[in-house]
Structures are given as structure tokens and as C-alpha cells.
Predict the 3D structure of the following.
Amino acid sequence: MTLLAVPARAVAVLAAVLLVVTLGARGLSPVPDLALVLVVAWALLRGPLVGAAAGLATGWLLDLVPPGATHLGITALAYATSGYLAGRARVEGPVAAPRVAVVALAAAALVEGVDVLGALMVGAPVALADVALRCLLTATVAAVVVPLVVAAERGLVRRAHG
């Protein structure tokens, strides 16, 4: 890993989080979870530990960016778990879009499921159709974006070491 890889990933996650929050604040709904797409990409590229670490950092950022979370840390734990489980699906070689879509759908379902449970515990209304559509949008975007992110990361590693 190059010295600039971690700050570049942090900037990418920050941009994804800000874009999702901005689109949500503008009333666009449902919005695919672009931050989760990046977590899934790095988990599939590097494995479960990097996936969990990326998910934890991303979740903390989402917990802190307004509107934030009602219970600090729940989003971080959901993203860390999703990143870990996505990393367990890692295979050597090219990352196929159908595999990415299934892994991203499972990760999105876990994250959204935690949000739904949190809403139900406080008696807030839940639009299950929006939740399902957000999961499908996230999986669709991931199927397109994750192979590009993985290819770019592998190209940077080859250039740095090779």
C-alpha cells in the first residue's frame, strides 16, 4: 500500500458521505449508499479486516455528519460488520459484477436492517418500499463501481511495486 492510499480512501469516503447526505437533504429518496459501495470494494479487494476497519471508519463518519445517528456508534458497528462479511466473500482474481451485486445487496440489507430496527424501537415510521429500493440501488451501483475501484487500486499497487 502506498503512503497516499489511506488519505485518498479517506477523501473518497468523505466525498461519498457528503454526496449521500446532500442528496438526502435535497429530498431525493431513496439514494444508494455510496459509502457502503466503497466499503464493499475495499473489503472485496483486501479482505475482512480491512473491510471491517473501513466500515468502522465510514460508520463513525456517518454517525457524526448531520443529521447523524441517534445512538452514536450503531451505524459504525453496522458498517464494520458489513465490511467484515463482505471481506469474507473475497476471492483472488477479477471481481465479477454479479458477485459484487450479491455481496453489496447483503451488506446493504444488514445496514438498512439495523436502521429499520432502530426506527421501530423508537416508534418511528418505516417505509419498507424505500428501504428495499435503496438496497437494490446500492447493489446496482456497486456492481458497476466496485470493479472499477478494484481495478484502479490494483493498478496503483502494480505501478508502485512494479
Observations:
- DSSP finds six helices and no strands in the chain.
- Residues 68 and 154 are 33 Å apart (CA to CA).
- The mean pLDDT is 90.
